[in-house]
Amino acid sequence: MQGLMQDWPLTVDKILNHAQAWHGDREVVSRSVEGPIVRTTYAQIHERAKRVSNVLIGLGMQPGDRVATLAWNTGRHIEAWYGIMGIGAVCHTLNPRLFAEQLVYIINHAEDKVILTDLTFLPILAGIRDQIPGVKHIIVLSDEANLGDQLPGALAYETLIAEASSDAKWGGFDENTAAGLCYTSGTTGNPKGVLYSHRSNFIHTLVTMGSDVLGIKATDTVLPVVPMFHANAWGLAFSAPAVGAKLVMPGQKLDGASVHELLESEGVTFSAAVPTVWQMLLQHLRASKGKLTTLKRVVIGGSAVPESIVRGFRDEFGVDVTHAWGMTETSPLGTQATPNAAIEQMDPEAQLQFKLKQGRPPLGIQLKLVDDEDKDLPHDGHTFGRLKVSGPFVVGQYFKAEGGKILDDEGYFDTGDVATLDEHGFMQITDRAKDVIKSGGEWISSIEIENLAAGHPKAELAAVIGVAHPKWDERPLLLVKLKAGEAAAKEEFLQFLDGKIAKWWMPDDVAFVDDIPLGATGKIDKKLIRDRMKDYVLPTAAAGGSAALAMSPEPKIYAPEPAPAPVAHHDHDDDGAWLHWTPGPDQTLDRTRAEPAEGEAPADAVRPFRRS
Ligand code: ADP
Prior knowledge:
Blueprint: H1 13-22, E1 27-31, E2 37-41, H2 42-58, E3 66-70, H3 75-86, E4 90-93, H4 100-110, E5 112-117, H5 122-128, E6 137-140, E7 155-156, H6 157-163, E8 178-183, E9 193-197, H7 198-209, E10 221-224, H8 236-243, E11 246-249, H9 256-265, E12 270-273, H10 275-288, E13 297-300, H11 307-317, E14 320-326, E15 333-336, H12 341-344, H13 348-355, E16 366-370, E17 385-390, E18 413-421, E19 427-432, E20 437-439, E21 442-444, H14 446-454, E22 459-469, E23 473-482, H15 490-497, E24 509-512, H16 526-532, H17 539-542, E25 578-579, E26 609-610
Parallel strand pairs: 1-11, 3-4, 3-5, 4-8, 5-6, 6-7, 10-11, 10-12, 12-13, 13-14, 23-24
Antiparallel strand pairs: 1-2, 8-9, 14-15, 16-17, 17-18, 18-19, 20-21, 22-23, 25-26
The structure holds adenosine-5'-diphosphate.
Residues 184-185, 231, 301-304, 323-328, 358, 415-417, 429, 432, 521, 523 line the site of adenosine-5'-diphosphate.
């Protein structure tokens, strides 16, 4: 028997219709690419978005056609989104930080027909124009006067929409119609397209509006620093109009001073960005003795939040941090570290340990933790395994079925993340599967070490990679970019880590570098670092150990059963028994590990492996 409620397709045009009808005079403030602050409202954005729809129809766009944006977070970008999606075309957000050849690949793979671009990116498009023949029109999000002559034939957005009618029909199609397309950054292989539907975006919006998730309200002023081209600005371009929050769009200026200026001048209460942005803001605030008079909460995700950021916001500025995890493939919000009832009862320091985890899934996200044979692993807070996810806003297959079948038999998607789940349902990423350091058959979390090292007062940024080692397969190398004007000795960093991580996790060397490269979404680019360091030899590797190469055990990564009590074995045991050992940096066996305090995740999980 079917229910008898109304058939009301969940299409995203309804979100802006709602904002226009019920929050029409709520402001959308943008730092324009041209420079000045531009103030509009949801009613104006709605009206102009309808004009965008008519411009696109006039250019021959049909439902299902891909229309790309190459743009910063501004009111115009929002108009473009809703104008494209409202008529059933697909809004393809291009990430301008990608290399030109990746952009060419993505634009051609998506078969984009129109690109709406900011002035900033005209040189990029001019450089690749002859390699993207399928693109029929380029619309520049500016006035005619700013067009210049870099891209012959480019059209001026303001001229087009001034001439277009604001009467356009939106929606009226199936809620499973494609709405948006976003490519993953392709650290392995070609970038792959995630094709969101209206329904998946609508449900993601409803879920993220929950007070335990983003929890934004009509009374909030929201500044999405996270770009709309990076996993949909974590849904804020949908959820802010959905609740009627004032929206502040930062344009291209994401440095500490510019973000601070907007936070204060617009009375921002809620913001969201990757850790590197907040690192820059905190540094700016400390240097300029700045204050945050209205900001209450920031959501931080995209990579793990270092403890120093959470403490800095909390203790120096009275701002609450919510750590969140997600990926392009999950629309993107997958978990958030908001407390449950039991955690809320804990003292602030114990709570902090949960804030640093990536958090728990909201309704709509199912998580599981499995080993290499796809067997479920315990949720004990220290056994780590592959994180899999399913739900109505999780990818089912990539655009054009790139990569083939990507779901397991139960319909779960393998995130490529390695994680633990604890008894409160809090997930903690220990690494990307490809970045984890495999030392003597055991796994070392590169993220955990680099987050701790980044908390050193002299460090601006820290990165940890695994470097080949003749005896242990890989050992950790810590790279540190010092703050301007600082000098440090390697020992200072090793001493700083001492006692915070198991001794066998201790980096074999510390390298001070001028630059820690960030990838297209602001995350540390480990692939490039590994490439740069490919000729580097660890001092411990140069010192010998080659005789042990043949002894290197076949890694057995996961520990389905609880770790047995530490028993001394040496690495020549060859009886096939479960071995339990921890290689120290000096290649001796070292069993020292700090016991976790109550409520705290163990810094390391010593796991057994079976030597094959
Ligand atoms: P890109 O690599 O293009 O940035 P995504 O934004 O989809 O692609 O990246 C998703 C990945 O980012 C996740 O699978 C995870 O590895 C990492 N990630 C996201 N949020 C966090 C977080 N809070 N802590 C640690 N890693 C995170």
